[in-house]
Amino acid sequence: MQKLSFIFLAAAFIFSCSKENPDANIAPDLPAGGNERTEEPPNDNSYSITLQSAQSSISFLIAADDGDKAGVWIDLNNNQKREIGEDIRQFRTRITCTLDASKAVKIYGRVKELVCIKNQLTAIAFSKNTVLTSLACSDNLLTSLELLNNTTLKSLSCATNKITSLDLSKNTALTYLDCAFNKLTQLDLSKNALLTELNCSNNLLASLSVSDKPGLKLIYCFDNKLAILTVSNNPLLDRIYCNANHLTSLNITQTPALKYLHCQENQLRELNLSTHSELIELNCSLNNINSAKMLELINNLPSKSAMAKAYIISNDTGEANLLPPVVLFTASYKDIAKNKRWQLFRFMSDGSVAHLNP
Question: Which end of the chain has fewer beta carbons closer than 10 Å to its terminal beta carbon, N or C?
Answer without folding.
Answer: C
